[in-house]
Design a protein that fits this description.
heterodimer; A: 306 residues; mainly alpha; MetI-like fold; 2 domains; two-stranded antiparallel ribbon; 13 helices; 2 strands; globular; B: 417 residues; alpha/beta; D-Maltodextrin-Binding Protein, domain 2; five-stranded mixed beta sheet; 41% helix; disordered N terminus; maltose binding (chain B)
């Protein structure tokens, strides 16, 4: 009996593994192995073409004295810590508007989402002209209202802001997720609060915010990872229109993000070992911030009775 | 070591063809043909010119069939050279990558092609030879001279400058600022910041890579960069300068500031001859003004290169095709269609370039002692990236010339030698 059970469970295990094998093989070959390999490469002098040479922690030590590493890390954290809260705020406010009973609401919702389906590179080139200091629409509108007309793409004080604008242009995706969350908030809670004389702000703070807080937690983590890995938007915006393919990454390297500097080291300078070490540092930075957010979530995320 | 003598290739191909013909009773020559892939970074009209040359080669013999593929992605080019069997047999790039790629072992040494390199400019070959081995061959060379808008100079009563003092004077007369402090015309512009400032460094007797080492604080080089800041940027303020240049569009388009008549003078490569003429511009070109008469025409040579990757599946056939591309007729046709300088000194006096206006100024520089070539160096790409960042800081007015170039000198200590 026990032999039969043993054989049966062995067969069941085999069948289970066989059915899971597409994922297991895919995960092993495409994720686990490259991750482990990059860990090893981060301890070596490696260029893709020659055999890696073990150098211990030299790549990590080099980061400490590399001013461009710190510049790229600073820029990336700036984009993250400014961009994520602004993205959340705009999305939540916009979701409220999209939740109102407005004429043609379906069309507004579609229009808000439209930028999210425009390819990032095409959008980047479009925004290069919109943000053109002399002839761009953005400065033209600013001129109508008598506002300052910054040199968006060629002034180091505005380069980072330009990247944030391009990233926030696709805020519609986040907004629609919030819209779905708002639809899930029980209407009777608002009715009860209204009967108690609660103001709009009070209702938002005491009902809406806690009820959508699980979605907010999800949005923060997803957006934070996207901002920490940002590459395409600054890469396209900083593309030199002149003869050279790629000059400084934005004025004063203000658009030099961590991912771009990692790319430069890996594929331009052929320092794959250093780039691998940078990738691991980014992983730990992302992990640390994510754990911090999850830890703080105990204090502000409301799961109802769950 | 692979060999590429014509005889061995021919014998090998004839042998293979004979075996196939006897064994299969086939009569078609196509069974013996070796297929090779030429992946090139050029596109558009340049790509079409290459396709014509490829068609000429395919029609000239029956042993090898070349397929051209336009692939302007250098990262993809590099990645495909990391596999054991490459996706292409021959490709192109620029001289700045040769040393680093040779060091990685991904470029096939080409000494055995038995090409007479004495016809190539020394300034070009210097960049393609590492430890005595030729790793790439020059299909075209480039240098920079002072191109000017004739109409704007005539209106301002300025004659083309020959010294840097005259250049400073011309810049002052040709720069226009409106009542609000906005620049409306710039006396001297830079279509490529890095190339332009390096050229000015040479014009002041400097060298940004003196003694085959990074020398960003070389006095002459610093003086050249300072000249541009003092005469072009500072008089109009960095803010106004950057706002002005930010308003323009892609290089060599209708929004190009030189085409739009907003730059009176620029340091430009020879390809501008064909472009300016096709754009209907009234333009001229003079050698780069020098600080002293001996420094007149100081410039530097960049090189468009062809190479065979070590993972090419058909090295010998690629070698045969590479030799064809380097032959004077093919090179002449290629460089003429692109409006590039040939890499053969014997072609300098060719009548084929007579229809390219003012082209002789760039052609003559090929033989000039003031045409500098850079050595093949492992650090060149990283060094160039750092220089571009420093130039940007200078033009932004956020760092002095000395401080920005000193920071490059500090970073250069970590470059791979």
């Amino acid at each position: 009996m026990s032999t039969f059970r043993s054989q049966h469970s062995g067969w069941a295990l085999f069948k289970g593994l066989a059915f899971a094998s597409p994922f297991l093989i895919g995960f092993g070959v495409l994720y686990a192995w490259p991750i482990l390999a990059s860990g090893w490469y981060s301890l070596t002098d490696f260029s893709l073409f020659k055999a890696p040479r073990f150098v211990g922690l030299a790549n990590y030590e080099r980061m400490l004295a590399d001013d461009k590493f710190w510049k790229s890390l600073y820029n990336t954290l700036y984009f993250t810590f400014v961009g994520v809260p602004v993205d959340i705020a705009i999305s939540l406010a916009g979701a409220h508007i999209l939740n109102m009973k407005l004429r043609g609401q379906a069309l507004w919702r579609a229009l808000i989402y439209l930028p999210s389906i425009v390819p990032v590179v095409a959008a980047g080139f479009l925004w290069r002209w919109l943000l053109n200091a002399q002839y761009g629409f953005v400065n033209e509108i600013a001129r109508w209202f008598g506002l300052a007309q910054p040199n968006w793409l060629a002034d180091s004080a505005w380069g980072g802001v330009s990247v944030l604008i391009l990233m926030l242009w696709t805020v519609g995706g986040t907004m629609l997720i919030y819209l779905a969350a708002l639809k899930d908030v029980p209407v009777d809670l608002y009715e009860a609060a209204e009967l108690d004389g609660a103001s709009h702000w009070r209702r938002f703070i005491d009902i809406t915010w806690p009820m959508v807080s699980p979605v907010t937690l999800f949005q923060i983590i997803v957006l934070m990872i996207a901002f920490l890995q940002v590459f395409t938007q600054p890469f396209v915006l900083s593309k030199d229109p002149g003869l050279t393919a790629q000059s400084a990454v934005g004025p004063g390297d203000s658009m030099l993000t961590y991912s771009i500097y990692l790319f430069q080291n890996a594929f331009m300078f052929l320092k794959m070992g250093y780039a691998s070490a940078m990738a691991w540092v980014l992983l730990f930075v992302t992990l640390a911030i994510t754990l911090l957010v999850l830890w703080s979530a105990k204090k502000w995320v409301f799961y109802g009775n769950r | 070591m692979q060999t590429f003598s014509n005889r061995s290739v021919r014998n090998g191909l004839i042998g293979a063809a004979a075996t196939l013909a006897l064994g299969l009773g086939a009569t078609s020559a196509s069974y013996a043909q070796t297929q090779i892939t030429f992946s090139y970074l050029w596109g558009g009209a340049e790509g079409q010119a290459l396709e014509e040359i490829i068609a000429d080669f395919n029609a000239s013999q029956t042993d090898i069939v070349v397929t051209g593929v336009s692939s302007p992605d250098t990262t993809k080019q590099l990645a495909s050279m990391s596999s054991s069997r490459g996706a292409f047999d021959i490709s192109d790039n620029f001289a700045s990558n040769v040393a680093a790629w040779a060091d990685q072992g991904i470029l096939l040494p080409l000494n055995d092609l038995d090409i007479d390199i004495s016809d190539f400019p020394e300034s070009a070959m210097k960049q393609l030879v590492v430890d005595g081995q030729i790793y790439s061959l020059p299909i075209a060379t480039h240098n920079f001279q002072l191109v000017y808008n004739k109409k704007l100079l005539d209106e301002a009563g300025v004659t083309p400058p020959t010294t840097t003092a005259e250049l400073a004077d011309a810049i002052a007369k040709l720069t226009k600022v409106d009542a609000n402090g906005n620049v409306t015309q710039l006396g001297l512009g830079l279509s490529d910041v890095s190339a332009g400032l390096k050229t000015l460094g040479y014009a002041f007797g400097g060298d940004w890579n003196r003694g085959d080492e990074p020398s960003p604080t070389d006095p002459g080089f610093v003086e050249g960069v300072q000249f541009f800041f003092d005469n072009v940027v500072a008089p109009v303020t960095p803010e106004a300068y950057n706002r002005f240049i930010a308003g323009y569009g892609p290089y060599m388009s209708d929004q190009d500031p030189f085409v739009a008549g907003k730059y009176a003078m620029i340091f430009e490569g020879e390809w501008r001859s064909k472009f300016n003429t096709e754009a209907g511009m009234d333009w001229g070109v003079v050698p780069v003004p020098g600080k002293t008469p001996e420094l007149l025409g100081s410039t530097w040579s960049d090189v468009s290169t062809l190479f065979i990757p070590t993972n090419s599946p058909n090295k010998e056939a690629a070698g045969v095709f590479l030799k064809y591309l380097m032959s004077p007729p093919a090179m002449e046709k290629f460089s003429h269609v692109l409006g590039n300088l040939p890499a053969r000194l014997s072609l300098v006096k060719s009548a084929a370039y007579d229809d390219l206006p003012n082209f002789n100024v760039w052609l003559d520089a090929l033989n000039s002692p003031n045409n500098h070539g850079l050595p093949a160096s492992l650090y060149m790409v990283e060094y160039n990236t750092d220089l571009v960042s420093a130039f940007d800081q200078i033009l932004q007015g956020s760092q002095t010339v000395d401080a920005a170039l000193k920071s490059v000198a500090d970073r250069s200590a970590s470059y791979t030698r």
